[in-house]
Amino acid sequence: MSTRQIEPGDAHASRAAFASIGSRYFPLLVALFVGVMLISNVTGTKGVVLFDDWLNIDIGPIHMEGLVTDGAFFLFPLAYVLGDVISEVYGFRAMRRTILAGFAVLILASLCFWLTIHLPAADFYEGQDSFETVAGVVPQFLLAGLAGYVVGEFLNSFVLVKMKERAGERHLWARLLGSTVVGEFADTLVFCSIAATALGISDWGDFVNYTIVGFVWKTLVEIIIMPVTYFVVGWLKRAEPTYQEALEVATAGTRDVR
């Protein structure tokens, strides 16, 4: 395989290697990512309080009676793990396509839910109110979910790829952690700022609680399952022939520059 010499200052003089999206693995990752986002968008409309029987904190403006979160707290962090895997192996352009695909599916799902709710119910159907409660499209939630999703995922991928362009294959843990902190914080802040009142959060203490708990929880989950992320990333890099080819080019180009 031929490689060209990369000159200092060349836009392609990067230590970062990325696989081609024309593989059998990339569509599966995109499907899983979109599925997680779709499920989280529905379960996230339920307000949840955990440990309210023993966790009570009253410090200045922060008044906590339990951990205030939502029904997506146990699944949503997986979306950022998948985003990290796609960004690390396939790059920012591939993740951008994935984000846009997820955005389109979320919009389509919202339109389908709205249309189904407004279709005439059969006389024998007794679940109209329940269906509307669960699947109803609340504009505030929809805006909050889409805004947080787009801002958070784009920042997460952008930060990870930029760090990789500087460090190459080294310090994956730093990329995973750094991108998570930026992306999750932006996502949580944007979502909570828009959706808080719709969830019934009306005072500053609950808002701070909801925002901090969401951010800390999502970040901790990514840290806890980082060994799994490492394993998946490592396996994909070995399984993707185009990644190995790109890695050879990046390595050769770095040697030429030096």
Structure, described:
The protein is mainly α and 258 residues long. It has nine helices and four strands; from the N terminus they run H-E-E-E-E-H-H-H-H-H-H-H-H. It has one domain (25-120, 128-248): Arp2/3 complex 21 kDa subunit ARPC3 (Orthogonal Bundle). Helix content is 67%, strand content 6%. The chain has a two-stranded antiparallel sheet with strand order 1-4. The chain has a two-stranded antiparallel ribbon with strand order 2-3. Mean pLDDT is 83; it is low at 1-13.
Pick out its properties:
258 residues, mainly alpha, Arp2/3 complex 21 kDa subunit ARPC3, two-stranded antiparallel sheet, 6% strand, globular, disordered N terminus, transmembrane helix, transport, transmembrane transporter activity, YhhQ
Write the layout of secondary structure elements.
Elements: H1 25-43, E1 47-50, E2 56-59, E3 62-65, E4 67-70, H2 77-90, H3 92-118, H4 128-135, H5 139-167, H6 172-195, H7 204-224, H8 226-239, H9 241-257
Antiparallel strand pairs: 1-4, 2-3
Helix pairs in contact: 1-2, 1-3, 2-3, 2-5, 2-7, 2-8, 3-4, 3-5, 5-6, 6-7
Q: Output the radius of gyration.
A: 21 Å
State the order of secondary-structure elements, H for helix, E for strand. HEEEEHHHHHHHH
Number of helices: 9
Annotated CATH architecture: Orthogonal Bundle
Strand coverage percent: 5-15%
Query: Helical proportion?
Result: 55-70%
Largest sheet: 2 strands, antiparallel
Q: What count of domains describes the coordinates?
A: 1
Query: What's the CATH topology label?
Result: Arp2/3 complex 21 kDa subunit ARPC3
CATH top level label: Mainly Alpha
Q: What strand order characterises the main sheet?
A: 1-4
Distance between the termini: 21 Å
Which stretches of 5+ consecutive residues score pLDDT under 50? 1-13
**Class from helix and strand fractions:** mainly alpha
Shape: globular
Number of strands: 4
Give the overall pLDDT as a whole number.
83
